[in-house]
Amino acid sequence: MESGDLRVFQAVAIEGSITRAAAKLGYVQSNVTARIRQLEEDLNTVLFHRHNRGMTLTSGGKALLDYAGKILGLLEEATRAVTSSTEPRGPLAIGSTQSCAAVRLPALLARYHRQYPDVALSLSTGHSSQVLEKVLRYEVDGAFLSGPVPHDEVVAIPAFDETLALVSEAAMADLADAAEKPILVFTDGCHYRSVLEEWLRNNAWKTPQIMEFGTLEAIIGGVAAGLGITLLPCSIVAQSAAAGAVRTHFDAKLRHAIRTNFVMRKDAYVSRPLQLFLDELSASRLLDREVAT
User: Fold this and answer.
1) Angle between helices 234-242 and 216-224 (to 10 degrees)
2) CA 142, CA 268: separation in Å to the nearest integer?
3) Which are the contacts of 50, defined by CB distance < 8 A and separation ≥ 6?
4) Coil, strand, or helix at residue 51?
5) Spatial separation of the C-alpha atoms in residues 215 and 180, rounded to whole Å
6) Percent residues over pLDDT 70 in the chain
7) Which pTM was predicted?
8) Does domain 3-81 have CATH number 1.10.260.40?
9) Tens digit of pLDDT for each residue in 160-215?
């Protein structure tokens, strides 16, 4: 079993398709198919279930994927260690929800980049469930997620504390007027959406019309135009509220405090760029506490 075989296997496992994996790797499909078959023969184990929708991992395949992530991470770190200078370099892939990426991360990533310019930072965003899946599939080194992360394969490191508020058009002074309004949310899998739906149930309001949007900007714009209400951290809508575009509301039945964590796989290899990022995140959290007090 060679590292090249593990890279092919990892790509097929992540993409769920020989065709997509071949395109990602720049290989012909027959080459990818042959290497997967050879790997299965070498291990005397079926690694994938083949079906019309693509390929999914068997239990043996899932076990190998965990080891592949560790082995390939170590190989990349070893290469950087012997070929680079004393300055940290190499890739650092971060995931995040859109709301956190919009407000909390720009300053943090800018400080990190100023200190370690040779590290190739990348940031991908999505809804909570999508971002968590990227962590589990080793597609990112870690990710920022709001609320609890009930998964035994990850560890959650406290990052930011947020205050949630219901958000309406600026003209809506009484929150009771929102009872007939649609709720504007991301697709299912967003933690803020689940908190908002819990609040609606606690208020015994009738099931509202749900309007799903793909971007944070579209949600805030729709709320400002009077299309409906939403739930977001105060830090996200502070500028819009100050400009008079939206209004924030608080309710005793609403869970206002929420924590954003930096989530990593428990078995993730902590490279030097990642460790330095964790150090920067810790320093940033301490600074926020000092400012708050």
Assistant:
1) 40
2) 9
3) none
4) strand
5) 23
6) 93
7) 0.67
8) no
9) 888 889 999 999 988 888 878 899 988 766 788 888 888 888 876 777 788 989 88
String of DSSP letters for 84-141: S-SS--EEEEEEEEHHHHHHTHHHHHHHHHHH-TTEEEEEEEE-HHHHHHHHHTTSSS
What fold does the segment set 87-160+259-292 form as a domain? D-Maltodextrin-Binding Protein; domain 2 (3.40.190)
Q: Do the domains spanning 87-160+259-292 and 162-255 agree at the CATH topology level?
A: yes
Task: Find out whether 69 and 97 touch, Cβ atoms under 8 Å.
Answer: no
Superfamily designation of domain 162-255: Periplasmic binding protein-like II (3.40.190.10)
Largest CA distance in the chain: 69
Quick one: which of 260, 258, 265, 259 has its CA closest to 93?
Answer: 265
How far apart are alpha carbons 52 and 17 in whole angstroms? 10
